[in-house]
Structure formats: structure tokens, C-alpha cells
Write a structure and sequence with these properties.
106 residues; alpha+beta; 5-stranded mixed β-sheet
Length: 106
Amino acid sequence: MDHGTYSLEFLSSVERALGKLPRVVQQRVRQAIDALAHDPRPAGAKLLSGSGDERIWRLRVGDYRVLYQVHDDRLVVLVVRVAGRGNAYRQTELQRLVDVLRRRQT
């Protein structure tokens, strides 16, 4: 289903995390994120958890993971986390993300 081009938004923690990555990895991750504006659910993207506005999708970019939400009603992709595959799924971090996202909605 083609909705048009989505705008990309980032939690502030994502910008900091991207800045800490090696430059080559930054470029690959940014390219993958930019592509989400045209196809927010590309082949290989996986729905991790949640329902409604709390759904979190995962995109693999080499050894890194991009976690994001898709808001079709507003045509927005909200990138909520970029991390190495070993750190992307820590339960405490995922719960913190859900809490942050809930506060953003109010």
C-alpha cells in the first residue's frame, strides 16, 4: 500500500547513538533509515512488539538494528533506537522506550 513519502523523526537518543558509530556504519544506517521514508515496511523488517501506536518495527543493517514506529495516519516514521544487535533488545531498554513513547503521545 503506497501512502506517499513519510517524514522521518528521531528520538534525541538516536542522534547521539548514530554519532558514536564508525563513519562507514553511520552511512549504511542512515541510508537504510532514509529508505524508510519511501517504504516503511521493507522486506526484512519485522514487527517486534506492541499494538496500535505502540508497535515497534526492527530493521537489520549489518550487525546493527534500527527500531522504529510507523504512523500511517500522519505519514511519519519515528526512529526510536539504533544499537548493535547484542544491545538492541535489552528488556530494560525496550521498556524505557515504551515509556518514552507513551509520554510523547500525551
